[in-house]
Amino acid sequence: MVTTIKVKEKLKKYYKKAKSILSLSFSLAKVKFKLRNEGSYLGIFWYLLNPLAMFSIFLFLGNIINKKTIEHYPVYLLLGLIMFNIFRGATDASTSSIAGNAGIIKSMKVSFEPFVISGVLQSVFSHFFEILVLIAFLIYFQIPLGGLLFYPFILFLLVLFIIGFSFTLAALGTYISDISNIWSIMVNLTWFAAPVFYVVTKGDVPFINSINPMFYFITAARDIIIYETFPDFKIILLMVAFGFGSLAIGLFIFEKNKHRFPEAV
Fold this sequence. Notes:
The chain is mostly helical. The protein has one domain (2-264). The protein contains 11 helices and no strands. The chain has helices at residues 2-37, 45-65, 73-94, 102-107, 113-140, 151-173, 179-192, 207-210, 213-225, 233-257, 261-264. Helix 1 packs across helix 5 (113-140), helix 3 packs parallel to helix 6 (151-173) and helix 3 (73-94) runs antiparallel to helix 9 (213-225). The radius of gyration is 20 Å and the shape is globular. The chain starts with a helix and ends with a helix.
């Protein structure tokens, strides 16, 4: 009985801590989101400019290379771009999420997790506007919108994966000053290892794609949204494994090192 009470007290304590961290993360993300648009004539459009510019370039190239092999190629390309964009934006921000807030971390006793999570949430906010563009494309190409009902599940697992990865990069960023430059190279390699603008034949997946977690998230989303087919059960299991596995590993690394952050930055 005593053990049960202690377990309940610990769970209640963890719940309050998690709720506090998420609340602060959400508030920081809203502030950053508003500040980025402050004084800008184009406002929210800046969040869409990069994926739309990339979309235009690869649509031109893709129509030459993939015109006969990929059905609904413009939607195929756009969905891959916006999903990779949320991964790139959040992880890029995470490399400096701790080191970039050195003044606050050294002068105040605060939780470090919101600095990382808020960067991810900011990318999620941007992603919502990208989804609106995707919906417009789906309507234009007469693709049913029913598949979007399942997208929140994929996005949830993708966000868990990104948060875990961001915790790892944030911890590394406190010790490696060049982590931002290193990651910018690595994320470009990840981009080409994901089928964003080219097709991968099912049943014959190249090794470089099979070891890239983004391959599974993007493939599952395309299957459901564009082609109205349920993803392979293996892909679903791998998404769950990557999502929760990345979060567990990232939190472990972050928790083991966060007591050193004030000195390291």
